[in-house]
Amino acid sequence: MLALAAAQAATPAPCRPDEICEVPLALSAAGADALLGARNETWWVNGEVVTVVARREDGAQTCCAIQQRMHPIGRGLQAVSVRVPDIDSAIFDMMVIPGQWSDAGRRGPRAPPAPPRSPLAEVEARTTFHRIDSVRLGEQRSFFVYVPAGLAEGQRVPVIYMPDGGWPEFNAIADAMARRGQSSPVIMVGIANREDAGPPACPELNCDSRSQELLVDIPEATPEQSRFDARDLFTVEEVMPFVESRYPVLRTPQGRAVLGWSSGGSWALVMAARHPDLFGNVVAFSVGWRQAVPFASRLTRGRALFVAGRLEVARFRERTAEAASLARAAGAEVRLLTPNGGHAHLTWELGLAEALQWMFPATPER
Hints:
- The chain is α/β, with parallel strands linked by helices.
- It has helices at 2-10, 29-36, 120-125, 168-179, 209-214, 227-246, 263-274, 314-330, 345-359, and strands at residues 21-23, 41-46, 49-55, 61-63, 68-69, 71-74, 77-83, 91-92, 95-97, 106-107, 127-134, 139-146, 159-162, 187-191, 256-261, 281-285, 303-307, 333-337.
- The strands form four sheets. Strands 11-12-14-13-15-16-17-18 form an eight-stranded mixed β-sheet, sandwiched between helices. Strands 1, 2, 3, 6 and 7 form a five-stranded antiparallel β-sheet that branches. A three-stranded antiparallel β-sheet has the order 5-4-9, with no helix packed on it.
- A hairpin with a 4-residue loop joins strand 11 and strand 12.
- The chain starts with a helix and ends in a 7-residue tail after the last helix.
- The model is unreliable at 1-13 (pLDDT under 50).
């Protein structure tokens, strides 16, 4: 295997030194079948080259930190090799789609350390499920609220609102950082997306239900009220009052944040821009929706943290950087992180840790 991978690494395709790119694959169908054995997927690293092989039909690709189309090399076999620049500082996981298989990931020897995290079982035990009848959405919608342990009587703490139902690993990081005194305890609210997947024959990437709710100004939205607008009002008129009447959260813009990743990062940016009187902090990971970027020029105050990994496709890197520049010019305090990672939670976890320490320090700055 090492000899085979070394041959691949020795013949890279021409590409810029700082970009991830595909390199020639020196792998036969028989070789791939032997490497897989009883498995359906495998991958390995040699030098700066990552090779992935899988038992898949046409249409397979790697996801999500490294997004690359795979190629057939035999009946029911797909493979691809890519060069990852400065791989010793890179962090990425591996998934082959379609399918459910994924890998825990690889963190190079010079990559930033992973943020601390508490056991998920402990965090989930302090996470409460709610479901309410929404007037704004015209349906029932659920959300999850994580509350840190050990809050004193009468203590109020910052709150972070997230789409996609939140992310349990984010709660675990927030819990561990508060326990270590690296940040203030925070309450995390994860608002679920609409449960249906959208039209069965969806001709455009943005016609699925998640996109309709998280991406502003989708052309197909109804002129009366877009689903983005309905979700906006659901968040600020229904979820926030519910949370603030039942949980010990701060009720000032400085004590509130919106956070999201990918389409959710675009949602967080627009929500903060639309409601500066409510949200004094925005954490936007991998903003790729062009229509969301100009909203950054409305961030005239507060704090904004943007993250885009250097292994992401160009639109996420470039649009996130543009949003950060617009927000800085408008007057917001801005930080832009560009770790050597991809479009994946391993990259965004670094941003969460930075946001918690900066926006909600253990000893408040303001």
